[in-house]
Structure formats: structure tokens, C-alpha cells
Amino acid sequence: MVIMDYKVSIVKCDDYSHSRDCIIEALSMIGGLQSLISPGDRVLLKPNILAACKPEDAVTTHPSIVAAMCELVIEAGGVPFIGDGSGMTHPGATADALRASGMEDVAKEHGAQLINFQTGGYVAVEVPDAIHFPTLFISKAVLDADVVISLPKMKTHELTYYTGAVKNMFGALPLRTRKEMHLLADRKLFGEAVIDLYSVVTPHLAVMDGVVGMEGDGPAHGTPLKTDVIMASFDCVSLDLVASGIMGIDPSIVPTTIAALERGFGNPEPGIAGIDPAQLKRKYRPSSGGILFNLPPFVTRFFGRYFEVRPEIDPSRCVLCGACISNCSVNAIEKVNDHLEINREKCIMCYCCRELCPENAVGIDRSLLAKLVTMSGK
Ligand code: SF4
Ligand code: SF4
After folding, report:
1. Atom nearest to 346 CA in ligand 2
2. Domains and CATH numbers, the chain
3. For 124-178, how does the pLDDT look when each residue is reduced to its tens digit (9 = 90+)?
4. How far apart are CA 8 and CA 238, in angstroms?
């Protein structure tokens, strides 16, 4: 059920040990979970699990937030699933991130299924009225859910200044599409592309972890900043408007918010329940922009084409068991004579084949630029 309500609730939460009580209070101010979840609904909890970082690094949504949401979903009669796809390019990145961030433990403790978007499969979805991406490959787990709940972390971002409930759905895309969006190399165009995705995967609810946010070089390399807030809304755009304001970031410059409002999502003046946001207002130090976004767009696009991390099948190891072929969402693995090759045009770089190969026959071919950037060559 989609609830059209632009109210944003704001609750002070000065410690993660109070997460559950604060979330209950925030949800009660906007109508509660019962209005959203029907008995037996598959409820996908989508935290921000960008990288393999510990909860105290403030890169990822805190496990206490996800644990509380698992409990509340079960109490409302739903079946919780926890899932995300890491933004890192090395294979196995999502599994590492789910473990390091505490999601694996939360899932075990609450009997929730943990879904690695990168190995869970992707489905091609048409995007009506798309601006940049008329077709998107989207995580099957997201599409299969009856209810999607975005659980963003309050952070700065090198490209969109602020990353929150709308941008959190970026994790539903395979890495190839994420790279293509970044290579638009323009904040406005990137915001529009994210809204292409949001227009077909609009979460039903957002609950933001702003107990400890991240300032400076977010979304991955900034500094934790205690902000003492948990927020909730049935509308991600409205939540982002209020949250970015609390961080001292003018909501009218956030590309994802601008693009969403222009496409008819959200409300430029959402109602507030709970604490006055002015009482919590901070001045988050902005992200310095990162190497890609301090360059002119044409330079970024030019070099971006040469940053490649691609799977490659080693015929000397491959025993032609077929596991990779049957699990490749886009049928990119083809038999050529007596061996397998990956069709580079079709491959969406999910690395599922590498994760599932029992013979460790799928290696990684890094371009020279990718080797230089990662400085490891692994
Ligand atoms: S899963 Fe591995 S061994 Fe099996 S066909 Fe694919 S590359 Fe070969
Ligand atoms: S070839 Fe491998 S990395 Fe490429 S889309 Fe298929 S499973 Fe994913």
C-alpha cells in the first residue's frame, strides 16, 4: 500500500541503545507501521551498506536501527528481509560489507533473510518518462518485495552534497549502471538519473539514522558527527528535504531533491511532527568533491571510460559446470567453441558469476587506470 503523506517526524535520540524506542515514537507520529504492512507482507529493509566498515565509522546504517526495524516489522505481521549491494568494485564487496556492518548478525538474531543484491539477480525494468535511462536493471529482491523501507544514513556526498532516503536506492543497481550514472559527470544530470530509478522503485517508508552522521568527505571517507536524531516519513523526498536542512545543507541545491520535485515527487513544504528541526541544526562540513568531480565533466567522462573492472573466465580452470551461465541475469556468458566468454556489451558487472563459480575460474581483469586508482592490482 502506498501512503501519500508528506509529514516528517523528528525524534531526538542521543544513543543507539535507545534506537527502538525512538523509532517507535517517530513511526507513531506518522501513523505507525500497521497502516503500511499487511500480514505476511515481504518487507525489504534497505540500509546503506556502502562498504565493509564498522558501525562506528558512520559509513553504514547502524545495526541497532535495522534490528529495531526487524522487530517492528515482525510485530506488524510482516516478514523482514535485509538487503543491499555495496558500491565497491571488488568482487565479494557486498558480502564483506554485510558482515562488517553488523547486518549478518542482525539477520541471524532476528531470523531475517539477508540478501546480497549482487548475487540475488537483476531484472530489466522499463522506466516510463525516463530522462536518462529508459531501461534499468534493478535488484530482483527489491522488485519482489511487497513493502520497501529505505533506512538511510545521514551523510554528506561528493556529488549530491547530501545522501539520504532517495539516493539510498542506488544500491539496487548493478555496478555497471552506477558507473554509467556517475559518468554523466554533472550533478544535475546525475540527480535526474537517480530519479529515473526512484520513479520505478519508490520506497514506501524511510527511517533515517542520524544519531551519528558523517560530515566532510562522505559518503565513505568523512568524519562521524553526533547529531542525535532519528527521522521517519512515508515520503523519501520530504524526509531528505528536512534532513539536509538539519545538516546545514540548502535542500534547494541537492540534485536528487531538485530532480524529484521537478518530476512531481515529494512536497517542497512537508509537515513536521516532533522536535523543531531548528533545535537540531548543525553545520556539516561539506565533502571536498572527490577526484572525479573536481575535474571538468568531459575529462571525467574520458577517463571514466578507461576505468574498468571486468570479470573474465579462465578456460584452464573452468569445468563447464554451467553454474555461472544459469545465474547470469543478462545471459552474458556465451559458449564459444569449447570455452566460455563474457559478452562485455551485455555484462552488468554484478560479479555473481565470480561469487558462484565452484572452481574459482572467474577472475578479474582491471584496466591500467583501475589498477592505478586502486593501487593494488588485486
Ligand atoms: S561456474 Fe565456473 S566452472 Fe562453472 S562454467 Fe562458470 S566459469 Fe566454468
Ligand atoms: S557475466 Fe558475470 S558479472 Fe557479468 S552480468 Fe553475468 S554474472 Fe554478472
Report:
1. 5
2. 8-293 (3.40.50.11440), 306-374 (3.30.70.20)
3. 999 999 999 999 999 999 999 999 999 999 999 988 999 999 999 999 999 999 9
4. 7
